[in-house]
Amino acid sequence: MSKNNGLEKEEFENNSQACPMTSVMNVIGGKWKVIILYHLRDSILRFGELRKRIPKITQKMLTQQLRELESDGLVTRTVYPEVPPRVEYQSTPLSDELRPIIDMLCDWGQKQQDYIRSVDE
Amino acid sequence: MSKNNGLEKEEFENNSQACPMTSVMNVIGGKWKVIILYHLRDSILRFGELRKRIPKITQKMLTQQLRELESDGLVTRTVYPEVPPRVEYQSTPLSDELRPIIDMLCDWGQKQQDYIRSVDE
DNA sequence: TCAAGTAAGCACAAATTTGTAAGCTAGTTC
DNA sequence: GAACTAGCTTACAAATTTGTGCTTACTTGA
């Protein structure tokens, strides 16, 4: 897991291994990762296509998040040695298992938005 | 939603309402919220009890996160006018719907940890 | 010769999140 | 009347995350 590369083993165990939730959030937390996974749910996408689908993400963040997802086993990255370069990203079996969860979260998000609106009115 | 209190309506819509995932992450993202919700899954807990169950959280963060969860409709906060003070937190119908999702995330977290171990070996 | 196209890298700055340490409250007990 | 209690607050500091702007590499077409 990218986040823990520099940690002592002991510290690593206190952090992630003790609590599965913490380890989950290390992997899909942050501002962009679930959104990226959401878009990769059912398509193989190139870097530029992901950028179009997530207009507000910066190039740097997209690169960075994709690399972390890759090293956590959630996406594969395929580089085609062409010019101009072509790089494709796709989900893995591990992230496929996340799919129903992401869908449920998405549905729940709608409900939550409704709640917010009812409070704001 | 606490995060958006200061935003213009327009900006709010671009952020959360456009993408349910973003709105979900606003609500359960961060280092502690799912963990708190996890512990409130099936018990009503006092502030101090939550602290014991989440040893590494600081008082400030626990207060802060609970208040945000409250204003997002995910926990209720009941103050008993006693001395010393007693405050109880419990889940709401809205966060109860999150429960199966949290359970699934938890299971998935185990798998993910196994993957990590197999890569680190 | 020069721009366009694609995926990235870097140094640095801004923003956000989290942590530390102290203080406050108002009754209750010693 | 000092100490204790549970929950909270505030000012400030540190850490982490995210964003900005500029640069690289290579080829094609104008």
Fold and architecture overview:
Two copies of one chain form a homodimer. By secondary structure, chain A is mainly alpha-helical. Chain A has a single domain (31-120), classed as Winged helix-like DNA-binding domain superfamily/Winged helix DNA-binding domain (Arc Repressor Mutant, subunit A), CATH 1.10.10. Chain A is built from seven helices and three strands, in the order H-H-H-E-H-H-E-E-H-H. A three-stranded antiparallel β-sheet of chain A has the order 1-3-2. In chain A, strand 2 and strand 3 (86-91) form a beta hairpin. The longest helix of chain A has 22 residues, at 99-120. The relative contact order of chain A is 0.12. Residues 1-17 of chain A have low confidence and may be disordered. The A-B interface holds A 1, 16-17, 19-25, 27, 29-31, 34-35, 38, 56, 72-73, 94, 97-98, 100-102, 104-113, 115-116, 119 and B 1, 14, 16-17, 19-25, 27, 29-31, 34-35, 38, 72-73, 94, 97-98, 100-102, 104-113, 115-116, 119.
Short summary of the structure?
Chain A has seven helices and three strands, in the order αααβααββαα.
> Roughly how much helix do the residues of chain A carry, as a percent range?
55-70%
Main CATH class of chain A: Mainly Alpha
Oligomeric state of the chains in view: homodimer
CATH topology of chain A: Arc Repressor Mutant, subunit A
Content-based structural category of chain A = mainly alpha
Poorly predicted runs of 5 or more residues of chain A: 1-17
Largest interface (C-beta under 8 Å): A-B, 39 and 39 residues
Principal-axes geometry of chain A comes out as globular
CATH hierarchy: architecture of chain A: Orthogonal Bundle
